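Box 4.2: Ligand-aware structure prediction
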Amino acid sequence: APLIFSGVQPTGNLTLGNYLGAIKKFVALQETHDCIYCVVDLHALTINPSPKELVNGTRSIAAAFLAAGIDPVKHIVFNQSRVHQHAELAWVFNCVARMGWLNRMTQFKEKAGKDRENASVGLFAYPALMAADILVYRATHVPVGDDQKQHLELTRDVAQKFNYDYSDHIGELGLGVPMEIGEETVNGYFPMTEPVIEGPATRIMSLRDGTKKMSKSDPSELSRINLTDTADDIAKKIRKAKTDPEPLPGDSGGFEGRPEAENLVNIYAALSETTKEEVLREFGGKQFSVFKPALADLAVEKLSPIADEMRRLLDDKGHIDSVLANGAERASVLAEKTMTDVKKILGLSW
Ligand code: AQP
């Protein structure tokens, strides 16, 4: 059966990009699938947060999950470090993944910058831990923003190499299903996980520069809308968002050379759960002086209730902690089952 897994790092205030690209999709998928949603605190160690920041950040992402509408009873919500099997499987995958694969990761190149020698080994090996997060549940689908596509390809590469290398033993143990790799058929233990990257919000761009991704770590506050921004902040940031002097085009072919305009229309479409075409049917030919206030009203209407609920939830830290502990207990059972198999497959237990 399909199984959804995804994670969000507790590395700062959640942005509208995180919400539309990931969390809003998590909420939609839980209607039709079994889902596991994780606050990936081990990943956050790659930016060396203070212990206090990490605790607060972790609770705050958990609060955002719940406030957005994720049901932690029907589905599993927890923080990564409580389930030690993630780290255990990540070591196995460090031994499966190749330096060359990780060297090609654009996120590592961007985050390490010029001073590669000083980048942490954890930042480099990040995608192997991410593959472990997903595959420790043998998850089949992962909803993410477009920026994570490359890491998901690596997850498939890891699964494929593991299946190929250990195919015979997987077969002897009766733990695999037949899987095609090129011309060959192997006994596959790990599934070939599919990314779920669709809709108008796969890549929300900075409000100051339509060619840059909206990001928690952008130094400009005006570049992003935070999930916890006040109504005034949201309206101000949209008013100041970079645009051009032309009115909105009549159809979606008319955004050539206008990434900022296209981004605002995409945000409107994602918030109102329609398409870019539908938004242009209403606003095509209109000026930004008309469109921006409408977008600000819509953003406030959709985001304010989430921010209010997050604040309410964060007043009762004991409740959030018990949700995470309960989720971790349930996740551990599933993760341990995989690790038991994996250790048999590898020859670590017999
Ligand atoms: N701008 C975006 N548009 C659509 N989706 C996005 N995501 C992030 N930015 C956008 C998606 O949000 C999920 C959680 O992201 P994350 O916190 O795990 O890591 P990230 O991608 O590194 O997020 P940021 O905001 O860009 O943080 P920094 O500034 O630290 O790099 C993922 O599914 C991601 O695709």
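In the box above, the bound molecule is adenosine-5'-tetraphosphate. The two ends are 28 Å apart (CA to CA).
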